[in-house]
Each structure stands twice: as structure tokens, then as C-alpha cells.
């Protein structure tokens, strides 16, 4: 399978959100990554359901919604209604993770689990067969523009082994500090989806930058 690119709209120009969404529509991006932060689970507040709805209104790419919030199970239906195609909830915020993943799938969405840099991938073994995507945080969640954590390569390899051993079809997504230098190493380790925020939106030509990430070989 060719790898997928999911630019993070968190790094877009919020004063020109429609323009940036339409730019992504014209690019080779596969998804639009939407980071939802509540200021409780992570030390930042991004945007919520109304902005997700606004993005969906203009988007021609599926929305990959990453809930960095407490009690994510209470908002699954709302983000489904707001246009999410994938919803990822944090392992660290989900005491009833199996039930939450199943409720996402019952709505016809792809179910994802996100894990913080300190969380061991082996903790996902019991849910990997009902997990469509694992979002490995390669920075500490809450802010864009952070430095990539090098241990992520090892986590990708370990997670890939768990997926293969289970005979699952789970995708591995890496989120945080992804750029043209570490992308080949991540793909070689087993990553399937690359999330890039500042690297895309702060570049002189975001469409070209997305194409560069899409063309990465390893």
C-alpha cells in the first residue's frame, strides 16, 4: 500500500480556513487531520464541533479527527454528525477503550487509538483487531511545531509486529514533527500515514510540500 498524507489543519491560517481547506482539496493529501483539544487532557485549546462542521462543509478529503480530550466517548456521535470519517481517541483518556472503539465502528466510521510518547504499544494488543488506525504521537500532544522524538521509530516497528502477529489491517499513523528528513525512516519502520502540520502550512508552497511527502521513497 502506498503511504498516505494527512496535513494537520491546526497549522492552517484560521482567518483563511476555507482557503486552506480548498488548497488541500487540490493537493495530493489523502485526509485532513483535525486536532481537537480541550485544555484539560492537553494544555491547549484548539477548536470544537462547529469548526469541524465548517471544515467538512468545504472539504473534499475525508476528515481524520483526533480527539485530545477527556471523556471522548461523550462526543463520538457529535463528531460523526460534524463530518468525521475517522475518530481517534486517546488510550490515556479512555478507561473503556474497547467499548468506545466499537461505538465508533457502529456508526460506520474508522476507529482509531492515539497514544502519547510514553505509552507502550503493547497495551494495544487486546484491541488491535477492532482498531482501524493507531496514531503514534511523536511529540507530546498539545502544541504544534515541537521536535520529533527519535524513539518513535522503535515504537513503529514494535507496533507493526503486533499488527502482523494479530493478522490485523490496522494502519500506523505518526503525528508530530514529521518532515521530509524523517519521513523515509518512518515509512521504512512501518508507518502508513504521515501527519504534517507546520511542515506543510509554513512552507512556501504547501501543495508542492505535500507532493514531496507523497513521493518519499525508502
UniProtKB/TrEMBL annotation:
<dbReference type="Pfam" id="PF00834">
    <property type="entry name" value="Ribul_P_3_epim"/>
</dbReference>
<dbReference type="GO" id="GO:0046872">
    <property type="term" value="F:metal ion binding"/>
</dbReference>
<feature type="binding site">
    <location>
        <position position="66"/>
    </location>
    <ligand>
        <name>substrate</name>
    </ligand>
</feature>
<comment type="similarity">
    <text>Belongs to the ribulose-phosphate 3-epimerase family.</text>
</comment>
<feature type="binding site">
    <location>
        <position position="35"/>
    </location>
    <ligand>
        <name>a divalent metal cation</name>
    </ligand>
</feature>
<dbReference type="InterPro" id="IPR011060">
    <property type="entry name" value="RibuloseP-bd_barrel"/>
</dbReference>
<feature type="active site" description="Proton donor">
    <location>
        <position position="175"/>
    </location>
</feature>
<keyword id="KW-0119">Carbohydrate metabolism</keyword>
<dbReference type="InterPro" id="IPR026019">
    <property type="entry name" value="Ribul_P_3_epim"/>
</dbReference>
<feature type="binding site">
    <location>
        <position position="175"/>
    </location>
    <ligand>
        <name>a divalent metal cation</name>
    </ligand>
</feature>
<feature type="binding site">
    <location>
        <position position="66"/>
    </location>
    <ligand>
        <name>a divalent metal cation</name>
    </ligand>
</feature>
<protein>
    <recommendedName>
        <fullName>Ribulose-phosphate 3-epimerase</fullName>
        <ecNumber>5.1.3.1</ecNumber>
    </recommendedName>
</protein>
<feature type="active site" description="Proton acceptor">
    <location>
        <position position="35"/>
    </location>
</feature>
<dbReference type="InterPro" id="IPR000056">
    <property type="entry name" value="Ribul_P_3_epim-like"/>
</dbReference>
<keyword id="KW-0464">Manganese</keyword>
<keyword id="KW-0413">Isomerase</keyword>
<feature type="binding site">
    <location>
        <position position="8"/>
    </location>
    <ligand>
        <name>substrate</name>
    </ligand>
</feature>
<keyword id="KW-0862">Zinc</keyword>
<dbReference type="GO" id="GO:0004750">
    <property type="term" value="F:D-ribulose-phosphate 3-epimerase activity"/>
</dbReference>
<feature type="binding site">
    <location>
        <begin position="175"/>
        <end position="177"/>
    </location>
    <ligand>
        <name>substrate</name>
    </ligand>
</feature>
<feature type="binding site">
    <location>
        <position position="177"/>
    </location>
    <ligand>
        <name>substrate</name>
    </ligand>
</feature>
<feature type="binding site">
    <location>
        <begin position="142"/>
        <end position="145"/>
    </location>
    <ligand>
        <name>substrate</name>
    </ligand>
</feature>
<comment type="pathway">
    <text>Carbohydrate degradation.</text>
</comment>
<dbReference type="InterPro" id="IPR013785">
    <property type="entry name" value="Aldolase_TIM"/>
</dbReference>
<dbReference type="GO" id="GO:0006098">
    <property type="term" value="P:pentose-phosphate shunt"/>
</dbReference>
<feature type="binding site">
    <location>
        <position position="33"/>
    </location>
    <ligand>
        <name>a divalent metal cation</name>
    </ligand>
</feature>
<dbReference type="GO" id="GO:0005737">
    <property type="term" value="C:cytoplasm"/>
</dbReference>
<keyword id="KW-0479">Metal-binding</keyword>
<dbReference type="GO" id="GO:0019323">
    <property type="term" value="P:pentose catabolic process"/>
</dbReference>
<comment type="function">
    <text>Catalyzes the reversible epimerization of D-ribulose 5-phosphate to D-xylulose 5-phosphate.</text>
</comment>
<keyword id="KW-0170">Cobalt</keyword>
